[in-house]
Specification:
With 369 residues, the protein is mainly α. It has four domains: 2-60, no CATH class; 68-157, DNA polymerase, domain 1; 174-299, Intergrase catalytic core (hpI Integrase, Chain A, Orthogonal Bundle); 310-369, no CATH class. The chain has helices spanning 48-60, 68-78, 84-101, 113-122, 127-146, 174-183, 191-207, 211-215, 244-251, 274-292, 301-312, 317-324, 328-335, 340-353, 357-368; strands at 2-6, 28-34, 37-42, 222-223, 226-231, 237-241. The strands form two sheets. Strands 1-2-3 form a three-stranded antiparallel sheet, covered by helices on one side. A hairpin with a 5-residue loop joins strand 5 and strand 6 (237-241). Helix 2 (68-78) runs antiparallel to helix 3 (84-101), helix 7 (191-207) packs across helix 10 (274-292) and helix 12 (317-324) packs across helix 13. It is elongated.
Length: 369
């Protein structure tokens, strides 16, 4: 038999009266043993009659619960086809929730939205960062729901602030870029490291590629005067012209160690793990940034810098999206204030709809003042 009890919330005025007190509106839980199996779980309701019916259905159908650690292991197998960097992001969040729930919820169906709220409160991260974690949690619990391990997705019921604004985009100044390029000649123990560092910085500067794409750049993507950035789902290629400085830096690169006389890649020997060469590139760039003493320097800011420069010179959101390999919506979200061309087109459109209105207004303002 299962015993019904109300699990008092943190704000319940009867919390100190214990589980025997049920004269409140806190959610019902059940506790007991069926066929030798301990059952302790939420009944997903605050209504007594519905709780009784839910408890009866549990007594009549006692499928074994899925341990949380087993559910996480199954989900990790499910995401194996994803890139290693993406899998690490998922695994980091799942490790966090597993450690948090240790001693609080053994099985996946014991994890409630109250657990997730407490988990959020314990995480010393920004709301914007947690929104990314929440997307992963919703995917994980959705995966469990599809397999009938839980009745619903508790992560979907989490309430967070809306209209969260992204952090300000701060592009590099020309002087800061110059300091980083100069710092490339002062890092490492030999010319091998310094030439690689310079080529990496110039690739980031002039192409806006992600650090993982730079570290694994294949030679067949670079032809005289241009580089292949991406291939759209439509099959159309996105090429970018590259200047003499970057071409010279790539041409002077020493072959990756262990790659032989005819390497396929610029920085990778093709033998070590992909993540290993990305980590090496990250350490090289970290040394450059530290040596340059540019505040807040990191590889991703080169993408911000290229995007803002293109928009400031009249590039469209679609063109910037094509170059960076993202959507125009993301460009608009992060870089709208830098799009001078967009603002000029809006002004031109209004002047066409209301000819002479704005000129007269400006004249009136000048006379008034």
């Amino acid at each position: 038999m299962l015993t019904l009890w109300r699990r008092h919330t943190d704000t319940c005025p009867h919390r100190d009266k214990g589980r025997e007190h049920d004269k409140c509106t806190c959610p019902f839980w059940c506790d007991g043993e069926i066929k030798g199996k301990r059952i302790r779980k939420s009944l997903k309701t605050r209504d007594r009659q519905r709780a009784i019916r839910n408890a009866d259905s549990i007594e009549n159908d006692t499928a074994p619960s899925k341990p949380l650690k087993d559910a996480i292991a199954a989900f990790e197998n499910h995401i194996l086809p994803l890139e290693a960097s993406t899998r690490r992001k998922y695994q980091n969040v799942l490790d966090q929730i597993k450690n948090f729930c240790d001693g609080k919820a053994r099985d996946i169906d014991e994890v409630t939205v109250e657990h997730l709220d407490a988990y959020r409160a314990a995480r010393e991260i920004s709301v914007a960062t947690f929104m990314k974690e929440l997307q992963i949690l919703r995917q994980f619990f959705g995966f469990c729901s599809e397999r009938k391990w839980i009745d619903d997705n508790p992560a979907k019921r989490m309430k967070l602030p809306r209209n969260i604004k992204p952090g300000p985009v701060v592009p590099y100044t020309p002087a800061e870029v110059g300091r980083m390029i100069s710092a490339c000649g002062e890092v490492g123990h030999s010319n091998y490291e310094r030439l690689r560092a310079r080529a990496m910085v110039l690739l980031l500067r002039y192409t806006g590629l992600r650090i993982s794409d730079v570290a694994t750049l294949s030679r067949d993507r670079v032809t005289p005067g241009r580089i292949l950035l991406y291939t759209h789902k439509t099959g159309a290629h996105v090429f970018l012209p590259i200047g003499v400085e970057l071409q010279a830096a790539l041409a002077s690169l020493p072959h990756p160690r262990g790659a032989g006389s005819n390497p396929e890649y610029y920085f990778w020997n093709g033998e070590m793990l992909k993540q290993t060469v990305v980590d090496i590139a990250a350490r090289t760039l970290a040394a450059v940034f530290k040596r340059s003493k540019v505040p807040g320097a990191h590889a991703h800011r080169f993408r911000h810098t290229l995007a803002t420069e293109l928009l400031a010179r009249g590039g469209s959101e679609q063109e910037v999206a094509d170059i960076l390999g993202i959507s125009p919506v993301v460009v608009r979200k992060h870089y709208a204030k830098w799009s001078h061309g967009r603002q000029e087109r809006i002004s031109t459109l209004f002047e066409a709809v209301y000819p002479g209105t704005f000129l007269a207004h400006e004249e009136n303002v000048s006379v008034t003042h």
